[in-house]
Amino acid sequence: MKIHAEAAERHTLSVLVDNEPGILARIAGMFTARGYNIESLTVTDVSEDEAISRITIVTNGSARVIDQIIAQTERMPPVYKVTDLTEIGPHVERDMALVKVAGTGDHRIEALRLADVYRARVVDSTTGSFVFEVTGNSEKVDSFIELMREVGLVEVARTGVVAIGRGKEAS
């Protein structure tokens, strides 16, 4: 008997839930209990009356694992809808990071030059450091952070991925 390992793929899931205490812990607990990894997790209120929240989860897994994650999440009582944005096709994803860089002289000039290339905004500045805000897909943010390591990276704070389907239909 040969066992073939299925290729793990990155998937972005949008989960609409009741905005109630403990729901995030229950969903995260389901991932933990089954050994699934969460790469990114964001939550926000999406209704006028603050009754519904959207949880955006980025995870990795084979097609079978992703199907299990979706099925198990859909069975949770406060969950209205689970959408695999990766499977439905075109969607928009954004990640935002605040990146603190310290340096003087050439390192300072290089940090500003790279920030310009990546369209990162300076949101705070002192004579010895900058805080940049960089927004884009996760690969762009990762790349910017890696470049800043060479010119004086001090610390990073990230939002995690937010995503929404393209077109006029709700995702």
By oligomeric state, this entry counts as single chain
Provide the helix percentage: 25-40%
Instruction: Return the string of H and E elements.
Output: EHEEHEHEHEEHEE
Largest sheet: 5 strands, antiparallel
Low-confidence stretches: none
Overall geometry: elongated
Beta-sheet strand percentage? 35-45%
* Total beta strand runs: 9
Rg, Cα atoms, Å = 19 Å
The N- and C-terminal alpha carbons lie at a distance of 41 Å
Mean pLDDT: 92
Number of helices: 5
Structural class: alpha+beta
Characterization of the model:
The protein is α+β, with helices and mostly antiparallel strands. The protein has helices at residues 23-33, 63-74, 85-88, 106-117, 138-149; strands at 9-18, 38-45, 52-61, 79-84, 91-102, 121-125, 129-136, 153-158, 162-165. The strands form two sheets. Strands 5, 6, 7, 8 and 9 form a five-stranded antiparallel sheet that branches. A four-stranded antiparallel sheet has the order 2-3-1-4. The chain is elongated and about 55 Å long. The relative contact order is 0.19. The mean pLDDT is 92.
Give a summary of the structure in a few sentences.
By secondary structure, the chain is of the alpha+beta class.
